[in-house]
Amino acid sequence: MTELVRVLRGLRRLTDDPRDAFAHRLRIGLAVAALILLLSLLR
């Protein structure tokens, strides 16, 4: 469980630039969506 928390903290992006923060969230969201799609296709 602590490894999962460490990975999730690594995904956080601390920046003051709103465009950079939005792009980072978009990339993370797309990665999560791709993972969900992959897992659903494997069922």
UniProtKB/TrEMBL annotation:
The keyword Membrane appears for this protein: yes
Top-rank lineage group of the source organism: Bacteria
Keywords: Membrane, Transmembrane, Transmembrane helix
Transmembrane domains' residue ranges: 22-42
Protein name, entry field: Uncharacterized protein
Biological source species: Jhaorihella thermophila
